[in-house]
Specification:
This protein has about 190 residues and is mainly α. It contains 11 helices and no strands. Helix content is about 65%, strand content about 0%. The longest helix is centred in the first third of the chain and has 21 residues. The chain is globular. The chain binds fe (ii) ion (2 copies).
Length: about 190
């Protein structure tokens, strides 16, 4: 992570995202570090992944489209079907080009933090779980998820996937097509 300078990144991030989102971001980063320590994952990577995970969330779809195109990775029609997911791959792209993050594991974690991914690393699982269970979350059942996240990373991932997939269904939103694959993979890979 030779190019990542924390102070500069914080300054840039504060200018790019809302105060509300900055609060969420800091709580996610804090929890990422805590879970990383618990599960033997690099704490510095966890902190960076947490801090940058929502860096693109305040961009409009149009801004995201333009940015992706500029970087030679135009958004496909398929991707545009899931506007709520877009800020994750875009966030990874921006983490690389705007924040100098060159670590694939961190970039994957940012990219997969909304949907999960088949073959997620422990860092990816930690960010996914921390995003859902950070101290500012108040939904029913969050406390059980917090307890589970300290007992088993894989069981907690499964429970968080269940909640996020269920949430999409409850809201009658289009389910990301790979969600079933991610679920089946997570179910078959509990340690
Ligand atoms: Fe997000
Ligand atoms: Fe988030």
């Amino acid at each position: 992570m030779k190019d990542f300078i924390m102070n500069k990144a914080m300054e840039k991030l504060s200018a790019e995202i809302s105060e509300y989102r900055l609060g969420h971001t800091l709580r996610v980063a804090f929890l990422c570090v805590e879970l990383a320590r618990l599960y033997g994952v690099d704490e510095n990577s966890a902190q960076i992944a947490g801090l940058l995970h929502d860096n693109a969330k305040d961009m409009s779809i149009e801004e995201m489209s333009k940015y992706a195109e500029k970087k030679g990775k135009p958004l496909s029609e398929d991707e545009l079907k899931y506007p709520a997911v877009l800020h994750s791959p875009l966030g990874a792209l921006r983490a690389k080009y705007e924040y100098g993050v060159d670590d694939e594991d961190i970039l994957n974690a940012i990219s997969s933090h909304t949907t999960g991914r088949v073959g997620m690393s422990d860092l990816e699982k930690i960010l996914f779980i921390a995003d859902m269970t950070e101290a500012g979350r108040t939904f029913e059942g969050v406390e059980e998820l917090r307890i589970l996240s300290r007992e088993s990373l894989d069981e907690a991932l499964l429970a968080c996937l269940k909640r996020s997939i269920g949430f999409v269904m409850e809201k009658k939103q289009t389910l990301w097509e790979d969600s079933a694959r991610v679920w089946n993979w997570a179910l078959g890979n509990i340690r």
